[in-house]
């Protein structure tokens, strides 16, 4: 079920501050962040976030299309490169 | 023969059933359409007057997205997810379930027929 509209989008507060700081600073640096649960807001467009995937920060360039998605969606937490048996099949 | 919304030619069935042959119209929408243009439930397609056919055609054109347009819309939505590089896009790309279902077993609709694992020893 989707979130009630009256609550507004969920964002961890510190992100807003960090994003604003980078905007004011002018230089486009990667904003390290752990808040995968936060929504991508319109004011984040054009910034680069380093979204934590549990191990390291994945750089995510925010584009207009991403608005409304959660940051976590752009930094996969699992690495799966297929089963050993599958590879054998491909080699044969 | 009645052509409604392009290529669909439903036959001797009741109108509200025949309309479900159109991609994008199920039972609920079919009934809504029949009600809004005043076609009684017992009416069959070959008993419809030309006027009724025209009104149904207009109602569908006006209020609903069907067939090609609907398919295009769905494809566009999926394409957006693919281009975005988000989790749902990755799942679409890999042909795995998108809504968080288990893949340890089942998920055969997305994964297709089960492939035997080669080199697996018999117990």
Describe the structure.
The complex is a heterodimer of chains A (92) and B (123). Helix content of chain A is 23%, strand content 15%. Chain A has 92 residues and is α+β, with helices and mostly antiparallel strands. In chain A, 16% of the residues are buried. Chain B contains 6 helices and no strands. Chain B folds into 2 domains: 2-64, Helicase, Ruva Protein, domain 3; 68-111, 30s ribosomal protein s13, domain 2. The mean pLDDT of chain B is 87. The A-B interface holds A 63, 65-66, 69, 72-74, 76, 83, 85, 88-89, 92 and B 80, 83-88, 90, 117-120.
Q: From N to C, what is the helix and strand string of chain A?
A: HEEEH
The CATH architecture of the largest domain in chain B comes to: Orthogonal Bundle
Strand order of the largest sheet of chain A: 1-2-3
- Total domain units of chain B: 2
General shape of chain A: globular
Helical content of chain A (DSSP H or I, runs of 4+):
10-25%
User: What percent of residues of chain B adopt helix (DSSP H or I)?
Assistant: 40-55%
Overall residue-averaged pLDDT value of chain B: 87
Spans of chain B with pLDDT under 50 lasting ≥5 residues?
none
Fold-level CATH name of the largest domain in chain B: Helicase, Ruva Protein, domain 3
* Count of helical stretches of chain A: 2
Task: Compute the average pLDDT of chain A.
Answer: 86
Largest Cβ-defined interface: A-B, 13 and 12 residues
Instruction: Report the strand count of chain B.
Output: 0
